Amino acid sequence: MKGMTSIIIPSYNGLSLLQDAIGAIRRYTDSNETPYEIIVVDNGSADGTCKWCIREGIPCLSLARNTGFPFACNRGLRMARGEYLMLLNNDVTVSAGWLPALIRALTARADIGMVGPVTNYVSGRQQVDYPFSSMEEFHGQAATALVQEAKRSEPIMRLVGFCMLFKRSLYERIGELDERFTPGHYEDDDYCFRARMHGYCLLMCRDVFVHHRGSASFKRSNPQEVQQLVERNRQHFISKWKVDPAKFMY
């Protein structure tokens, strides 16, 4: 649907996070000015995620088991109707003016294929050090950034998939996330790499500051196992592209 953004949120046993994320989207996004739809992909949760979504009137694709981030995103993308497509983690809190600013950057030129915000917690250049000690102070910092950094964006080699907006035309050209990176890590690096190979520019939007708790799905896992997964997927990337993804991180 022209002008609409499809916001795809995978979730696994993170109902409280999801409720906060969707609450912020609803509060800080004017659907009349910036139409959007939310699609939740439930990765086999046992916490009532789908029942809550049904009560809230939110489309929810219920998967039988935890299939990981790339698989869940791909299933959500297939359901999406929007001209613009967003992958959003369930532990992200958006802020006032976030979506119009991202869309403005995305549509500024034909060659821009993907944009992302800055945040308090992420790997690479998108992390910024804005001081805050409460969510109220976070929203204050976000409001300041929206004004002081208005329309300021920078070319970037990779965007992290915690909050990533891209054009449907890009999706139709380069396809889905590569599920070899399941359950997660480096699927976003791979997607950005493919986008750049097809001639698209990626932008980091300085005027959009969102809150990210960070690695909510993996914090429940054994740290050693997570590190092994990260290294395994890094090797998958190197094997596929013959380049170390760390080259594009900073």
TrEMBL record:
From which residue to which does the signal peptide run? none
Which Gene3D superfamilies does this chain map to? Spore Coat Polysaccharide Biosynthesis Protein SpsA, Chain A
Tell me the protein's name.
Glycosyltransferase family 2 protein
For this protein, the record's PANTHER family field holds: GALACTOFURANOSYLTRANSFERASE GLFT2, RHAMNOSYLTRANSFERASE WBBL
Pathway given for this chain reads: Cell wall biogenesis; cell wall polysaccharide biosynthesis
InterPro entries in UniProt = Glyco_trans_2-like, Nucleotide-diphossugar_trans
Q: Which family does it belong to?
A: Belongs to the glycosyltransferase 2 family.
Q: Which UniProt keywords apply?
A: Glycosyltransferase, Transferase
The Glycosyltransferase 2-like domain covers 6-174
- Please tell me whether the keyword Transferase is annotated for this protein: yes
